[in-house]
Amino acid sequence: MTQADQEAAPADDAAAATGATALTATVEGPDADGVEGSDADADADLGAARRWHRLLDWGKDARGSSTWRRGWVLGGCAVVVALLLGLHRQVPNSFGNFGSFLETFLPWLGVFIPVLLLAALLRRSATALIVLLLPTVLWFGLFGGLLGDKSTGKGDFTVLTHNVWAANRDPAGTARMIDGSGAQIVALEELPGAALPVYTKGLASSYPYHVVEGTVGLWSKYPISDTHVVDIKIGWTRAFRSQVATPQGPLAVYVAHMPSVRVKFDSGFTAGQRDVSAQALGDAIQAEPLGHVLLLGDMNGTMNDSSLAPVTSQLRSAQGTAGSGFGFSYPAEFPMARIDQIMSRGMRPTDSWVLPADGSDHRAVAADYRYNR
Predict the structure, then answer these.
(1) 297 neighbors 330 (Cβ within 8 angstroms)
(2) What is the pTM assigned to this prediction?
(3) In terms of domains, do 172 and 252 share one?
């Protein structure tokens, strides 16, 4: 190599290095439009792919089972709850009177919905989640209207009904609670003979008019007349009808205590006698000549109980029309069902509520009413 060649070699090496640097800048730097190059695009595509992969992975377990192939048992449970809600009136009483038992505690089927929802999420089952929509829609269709406050204000008068319980250890305290309730018309059920004078004395100053038939009674600030026993086919008196002269006009008031409904080991949920009594009471109300009718009492059944249809089909519930929530009244310590009812015909309830617990195993319920004009 000549001296000239030796001098030219470093210059060639420098030019080559400069070209490589330029090429690198071309590949890694911004493109002609100022957008990040191919590496940035690849990273974005990879991130999207990973997100989609994670979404797909939610539906697969360790064995690769699809979200649509899991949760069939949970879905089946949701279908059972939906069938009980939608077809509760078709559930027979032929086995332990299960139909009446179901309808008494029907709102509590809603407890299973969040439980199944949590299980479906933990199981990552799309099948169970979709099927669970059915009982959810049915439950809100039946009971969603009870969740809000439907009160429209003060009525013309207030009524109250209370099963005071034969074993009440503080009848004087119960009488004081009733006296301070502000009700103009009061019905009491399960009045024991020994405690009757306590209630009579405790309510005398506020309620100058009262009548007692058997173990049920009516106290009123307005005159009472035309009282007669209603035979509900149980062999003793637990229902009657009176006429109350309210300032708005005559009112037929029925006071009733339906036969008890109990769960027994050998015969299930016994309700047969209650159903016979409901038919007898329904017949009496149907024959009532007055247009304004009020029913107060312990029905030992809810408005959902189809066995009470002879009564409930003719009257509307104060709680369902003007109350807030379910208005559960029994048992007093932890109410789970509304078996104490205030129902009417020819009048408009404007409010309905449950009173605090007292010495009874039931809670008193009250409602405001306004005559339809």
Answers:
(1) no
(2) 0.77
(3) yes
